[in-house]
Amino acid sequence: PGTPSGLWGALTALSPQDWEQRQEEDTLLIERILLLVRNVLHVPPDPTEEQQGVDGDASVHDRVLWALHISGMDDLLKFLASAQVEQQWALHVLEIISLMFRDQSPEELAALGQGTAGAEHGEDTRELEALRQRELAEKRARALQRPSRHSRFGGSYVLQGLKSIGDRDVVFHKGLHNV
């Protein structure tokens, strides 16, 4: 889309400016716009209107949030929340974000975030567990195939009578069949 118009356009035009270059009027305009957005989101839902809607129909609050998203206001709020030079707006932005999520429970938000990813994660976990069990079974089968007694002649040996570089006997680290 083109450039935003109206209040959003005014706010996007003002916000990239360096805070030192802003005039008092610009700062007041930004604050008024943030307060307007906060006040619009703060309006409580009307139960009679909510009951008249069809199941699955978006509530007024959801439609306002969608309009904010379409206008790019959510991106602007993220910018204002994360920019170091825009710290003066942090409490306004925090209040707006809390009002955006006021009808949501943490459980619903967490479930929405997982969605199909949660199902895929569960499936991946089951696959990994099956592979782990198969690997452990193969390891047990290999352990059973080995002879239960170990060779007495495995390990390190000292060859007496044969001197190494120093005055000590040679230490040999292989089986006697390789000597």
Automatic annotation (TrEMBL):
<dbReference type="GO" id="GO:0000076">
    <property type="term" value="P:DNA replication checkpoint signaling"/>
</dbReference>
<protein>
    <submittedName>
        <fullName>TIM protein</fullName>
    </submittedName>
</protein>
<dbReference type="GO" id="GO:0031298">
    <property type="term" value="C:replication fork protection complex"/>
</dbReference>
<dbReference type="GO" id="GO:0043111">
    <property type="term" value="P:replication fork arrest"/>
</dbReference>
<dbReference type="InterPro" id="IPR044998">
    <property type="entry name" value="Timeless"/>
</dbReference>
<dbReference type="GO" id="GO:0006281">
    <property type="term" value="P:DNA repair"/>
</dbReference>
<keyword id="KW-0131">Cell cycle</keyword>
<feature type="domain" description="Timeless N-terminal">
    <location>
        <begin position="17"/>
        <end position="158"/>
    </location>
</feature>
<dbReference type="GO" id="GO:0003677">
    <property type="term" value="F:DNA binding"/>
</dbReference>
<dbReference type="InterPro" id="IPR006906">
    <property type="entry name" value="Timeless_N"/>
</dbReference>
<dbReference type="Pfam" id="PF04821">
    <property type="entry name" value="TIMELESS"/>
</dbReference>
<keyword id="KW-0539">Nucleus</keyword>
